[in-house]
């Protein structure tokens, strides 16, 4: 059987967004013929190079609740066949809920250049649609979107 590869990128395996919006779907994705994988983002050049290599081998790359610098994101986008942003929090806001110009700009850059956005609720979906029309409110396994 020829498996398709899906790579989830996050800030860590124990992060709630990784556990609930990535790793929780591995069994269903595997049953549906996908080969799911997770990689933790590190801020060192060797780790970033490994991330780019793994992204290049994946059919779908899902960024879980993370944004990147413009230069690294350009490289990731070039390496990825199908890039998806998955978010379950307002990553464009500070922890107190106030809009952050820096976070909003990073979010806008990433959201506008991904092929799809999977949003955890309608508020996040509406915010995402300002930058990308391919937004789905995703409350269940993403495998149904990958056919």
Properties at a glance:
6 strands; 147 residues; 21% strand; 6-stranded parallel sheet; alpha/beta; 6 helices; Rossmann fold
What does it look like?
The chain is of the alpha/beta class. The protein has a single domain, classed as Dehydroquinase, class II (Rossmann fold, 3-Layer(aba) Sandwich). The protein has helices at residues 16-21, 26-31, 45-57, 70-79, 101-113, 122-129; strands spanning 4-10, 34-40, 60-64, 83-87, 116-119, 135-137. Strands 2-1-3-4-5-6 form a six-stranded parallel beta sheet. Strand 3 (60-64), helix 4 and strand 4 (83-87) form a beta-alpha-beta unit. The two termini are 16 Å apart. The mean pLDDT is 86.
Structural class: alpha/beta
- Low-pLDDT parts are none
| Strand portion | 15-25%
CATH level-1 class: Alpha Beta
Q: What general outline do the C-alpha atoms trace?
A: globular
Query: What composes the largest sheet?
Result: 6 strands, parallel
Mean pLDDT: 86
What is the CATH T-level topology?
Rossmann fold
Q: Span from first to last CA?
A: 16 Å
CATH superfamily: Dehydroquinase, class II
| Helix and strand element order | EHHEHEHEHEHE
